[in-house]
């Protein structure tokens, strides 16, 4: 089972349904991606509970008290899939919406954003784009 694809789609679907939180299957990589999304400000928090990850979603607070406002994530796209892995060198790392989004990269130094990978001078597997 593709736990990363499942995680990203659960987050996207929960935002579309305006839910406050969601759960996804646990894997070390999925937890690292959630922590990265928290650091980038796309989700409010995440924590491991049993064999699942509890994710609290984040919304723009400019709406009225009755509505949740705009979702922090407007789209996600899984790039590297189990059947077709996509690797990029440090010089060819993608820019997501001209820097407005982030690419999640799995490098030898761990999971990081495209910006941090460029700064560190490493390439790797392009896991997903988030905007």
UniProtKB/TrEMBL annotation:
SUPFAM superfamilies: Ribosomal protein S8. Keywords: Ribonucleoprotein, Ribosomal protein, RNA-binding, rRNA-binding. GO terms for biological process: translation. One of its GO terms (molecular function) is structural constituent of ribosome. Gene3D superfamilies: 3.30.1370.30, 3.30.1490.10. GO terms for cellular component: cytoplasm; ribonucleoprotein complex; ribosome. InterPro entries: Ribosomal_uS8, Ribosomal_uS8_CS, Ribosomal_uS8_sf. PROSITE patterns: RIBOSOMAL_S8. One of the primary rRNA binding proteins, it binds directly to 16S rRNA central domain where it helps coordinate assembly of the platform of the 30S subunit. Belongs to the universal ribosomal protein uS8 family. Part of the 30S ribosomal subunit. Contacts proteins S5 and S12. HAMAP family: Ribosomal_uS8_B. This is Small ribosomal subunit protein uS8.
